[in-house]
Amino acid sequence: MNTSSLPTLKSEETAELLKKAKEGDGAARDRLVETNLRLVLSLVSRFSGRGELPDDLFQVGCIGLIKAIDNFNTELDVRFSTYAVPMIIGEVKRYLRDNNAIRVSRSVKDLAYKALGARESLSVAQGSEPSLEQIVEKLTEDGIVCKAEEVAAALEAITAPVSLYDPVCGDGQDALYLMDQLSDDGHIDDEWLESIAIEQAIGRLSPREKSIIDLRYYKGRTQMEIADEIGISQAQVSRLEKSALGKMKAEL
Questions:
Q1: Domains (ranges, CATH) in the chain?
Q2: What's the Cα-to-Cα distance from 8 to each of 15, 37, 133, 198, 201, rounded to whole Å?
Q3: Calpha distance 68→88 (Å, rounded)
Q4: Which has the closest alpha carbon to 72: 169, 250, 64?
Q5: Where are the alpha helices (DSSP H) in the chain?
Q6: Distance (Å, whole) CA 33 – CA 26
Q7: Which of 2, 43, 116, 215 is within CB 3.0–4.6 Å of 221 for a Cys-Cys bond?
Q8: Residue 169: beta bridge partners?
Q9: Taking a C-beta distance cutoff of 8 angstroms, is the pair 7, 35 a contact?
Q10: Which of 80-84, 104-108, 206-210 has the lowest mean pLDDT?
């Protein structure tokens, strides 16, 4: 799908549509889907080369987008794209995992997730990583009859394909995800989300403003060089650049 001609929204418009969609406005929901297809495409492109058809990945990413729209909490001070990105990525990763040649049965996955939940609660309670025997004991207390070797095998079975965005325990908005148990001192995701936000902000500029920002900040041209290239004065370039940066700042 060619998304270059698709419309985009300002943050205020997105917030308003999210409220309407939450109230059951189907047209607002469809509008949110349409105006975020570029985001889906940019995210699923990261998974190219996995042996899956691009159109299939795009459709799966759209499912993640729809889930993000339906589950987004409009009362929180969070940008929609910040919430939608992990939802879309998680949906694609689940699809890739479930279509992996090595399939893990649902019962084994369920036991593994319950074991991860038990390990998390024990870690919090005792301040240290619990042993396999302690995890089995905790599961037994919760009414789950299993052997230590079964728990070990279940945990090993999901180690490779499991997604950071798979729920460990709970459901709905109270779910605990694997990513909640991990830290990243490099802030790679933060930087990536910031780059996506900048890309979206640039996408809302006029064609001339986009051209000036591209030449000025991505190709390293001076204002005078830009003026000569596009046929306007240096003062006009300066005004357009300042205007574009102001619009982008309002979006970020």
A1: 11-98 (1.20.120.1810), 106-181 (1.10.10.10), 205-251 (1.10.10.10)
A2: 13, 9, 53, 13, 9
A3: 8
A4: 64
A5: 11-22, 26-35, 37-44, 54-71, 80-98, 106-126, 132-141, 148-159, 188-203, 207-213, 223-230, 234-251
A6: 11
A7: 215
A8: 176
A9: yes
A10: 104-108
Contacts for 99 with CB less than 8 Å, ≥ 6 apart? 52
Query: pLDDT over 70 for what percent of the chain?
Result: 80
Q: How far is CA 171 from the centre of its chain?
A: 18
Give Cβ neighbours of residue 129 (< 8 Å, ≥ 6 apart).
119, 123
Per-residue pLDDT tens digits for 158-187? 764 445 555 555 544 455 555 555 555 554
> What is the structure's pLDDT at 132?
92
Taking a C-beta distance cutoff of 8 angstroms, is the pair 92, 44 a contact? yes
Both tokens of 234, joined, read: 């240096």
| 95/151 Cα distance (integer angstroms) | 24
Residue of 8 and 87 predicted with greater confidence: 87
Q: Phi/psi at 12 (nearest 5 deg)?
A: -65, -40
Write down the pTM of the prediction. 0.45
Q: How far is Cα 156 from Cα 244, in angstroms, rounded to an integer?
A: 51
